[in-house]
Automatic annotation (TrEMBL):
InterPro entries: 5-nucleotidase (IPR010394). Pfam families: 5-nucleotidase. This is 5'-nucleotidase. PANTHER family: CYTOSOLIC 5'-NUCLEOTIDASE 1 FAMILY MEMBER, CYTOSOLIC 5'-NUCLEOTIDASE 1A.
């Protein structure tokens, strides 16, 4: 079972995304730098990730690392230098270790998703869901926070 997650608004709260969308890139960079040692809040699928990681750990305890039947992936638009450290520190503070993390610096999520071939991909932004669906990847929209508010507002117009 390969499960891929977006970060902000899915595994994590959308607190950083709110800063980015309301105040712009410079404010976002400053916020992430100032908050590097402060874990992000929990998003709606954090507990689901925890359950999957706990299953992974049970297989790892039996020596199944490379061929573990449960694998978890983070596929995020975040930049590894500007905001990746906070994400990794947050996951560490939660005691969660994913199979692999992709920090895409705003690049399309299609290439890593094509490589991973997840059984399901979760994201809070409809364009990322639509892109994954075009690749034949089963995807689920997580209606949460500012990303959902913007999407909902666009649909109402």
């Amino acid at each position: 079972l390969r499960v891929a997650f977006d970060g902000d608004g899915v595994l994590f709260s959308d607190e950083s995304e709110i800063v980015f969308k309301k105040k712009g890139l410079d404010a976002y960079i400053k916020n992430e730098d100032d908050s590097e040692d402060i874990p992000l809040g929990e998003g709606p699928l954090r507990c689901f990730l925890e359950a999957l990681v706990n299953m992974e750990k049970k297989f790892h305890a039996k020596g199944l690392y490379k061929n573990c039947p449960v694998q978890t992936f983070l596929v995020t638009s975040r930049d590894p230098v500007i905001s990746g450290t906070r994400v990794l520190k947050t996951l560490k503070s939660w005691g969660l270790e994913l199979t692999q993390a992709f920090f895409l610096s705003g690049r399309p999520k299609g290439p890593p998703l094509s490589m991973i071939q997840p059984h399901i991909f979760f994201d809070d932004q409809k364009p990322h869901i639509d892109g994954a669906l075009k690749l034949g990847i089963i995807s689920a929209h997580v209606p949460y926070g500012i990303g959902y508010e913007i999407y909902k507002g666009a649909c109402e117009k």
